[in-house]
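**User:** My hope is that you can spare some time for a protein that puzzles me. I have put the entry right below:
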Amino acid sequence: MKQREKTQRIAFLALFTAIIIIQNFVPLLGYIPLGPLSLTIIHLTVIIAALVLGPKEGAIVGGIWGTITFIRAFVWPTSPLATIVFVNPLVSILPRILVGVVAGYVFSWLRKKWSFQYGAALVAAVLGSLTNTLLVLGQIYLFYQGKAPEMYALDVSALLPYLLGVLATNGIPEAILAGIVAPSIALPLLRILKR
């Protein structure tokens, strides 16, 4: 890799990191509060980073998001549930890292198979978004079934339907948004990087 390309990649990685930090700390730029939950739009930055720079850098940006989520669960939670759920790094950090990994590898693989780059980016973005949603909700179900009454004022038997409702109301709109926005931003950036 030429020095100019390396410098450009580092500059883009720093830019995406700065955007993640801003989205985490400026109200409504990363999380849109909806009752006890928050609609997340930070995943778009991680997905765009993964599409533009690759899975490794996408994982780094996702890891930064996850680390901030973990720290915020203790000092400035985004929702009442964050103080219970996101204090576990497997729920707060791992899914965010995997957003970048999945989006980056899927895009890298599909862009070699398909001539339609927008379609490859769209599929990668949707799968990256769903990675976060399914891993977070799946781990909430796995690790916190016994805390369902405390967390959701639900009995344990109603936890799974509640989480499926969150998937329908948050996860699917987030995935659709990612499929529309991420390719629209990432593909022009790729042309700038000439990748």
The two ends are 12 Å apart (CA to CA).
